[in-house]
Amino acid sequence: MDKTEISTRPERKTQSWTQDPEGVRRNILEAARIEFVEHGLRGARVDEIAAKTATSKRMIYYYFGDKEGLYRAVLEAMYERIRSFERGLDLSALPPREAMAKLAGFTFDYHAENPDFVRMVMIENIHHARHLSSSAKIAELNLSIIGVIRDIYERGVAQRLFRPGLSPLDIHLTTSALSFYNVSNRATIRQVFDHDMGAPEVLARRRQTVVETILAMLRR
């Protein structure tokens, strides 16, 4: 390795940071997500994250403060992603039953296709939601889905399709629980019952069951 090669490597990292700071931030968050999902908050190492990015450990601390700040930012990005997809469903344009069925199906699909999201939520529960409670952004993000469900539900009640007296939060919790369990307990269910909840035909049946369960819960 000659001196020219040694001198140009740090410059490429500096240029990446100065020319595309948001790209560098996304790169850090992606590497951090993989590290936290694999090793949890306590086991994750910032050195390993830095080694997989286009920046340095020093710049990671510049962006996020410390490892817990980086972990919180990963959580925020993951919640922002699912809430962003939900906002893009355009459920207000659909009749209430169709809208609720679409939301339930989407929720099931999103969890099935994004097991890292489930893993991160499980890790945060181990930490008693300490990092969620310190994030005003996550609290605000998650209010949006309750508003979406409230709008669909109230339209359904007004049209005498849904029974009155239900809580939008309970509807959300039931939908999330049914979708979450199918991913979080996949390994234990396979071991105990020799049943693969991740198999395509099983997923299709479970998805239909979740949608039908939510609609039955709401039916007048």
TrEMBL record:
GO terms for molecular function: DNA binding. Residues 22-82 form the HTH tetR-type domain. Keywords: DNA-binding. Residues 45-64 bind DNA. This is TetR family transcriptional regulator. The lineage of its organism: Bacteria, Pseudomonadati, Pseudomonadota, Alphaproteobacteria, Hyphomicrobiales. Residues 1-14 have a biased composition (Basic and acidic residues). PROSITE patterns: HTH_TETR_2. It comes from Azorhizobium oxalatiphilum. Transmembrane segments: none annotated. Residues 1-21 are annotated as: Disordered.
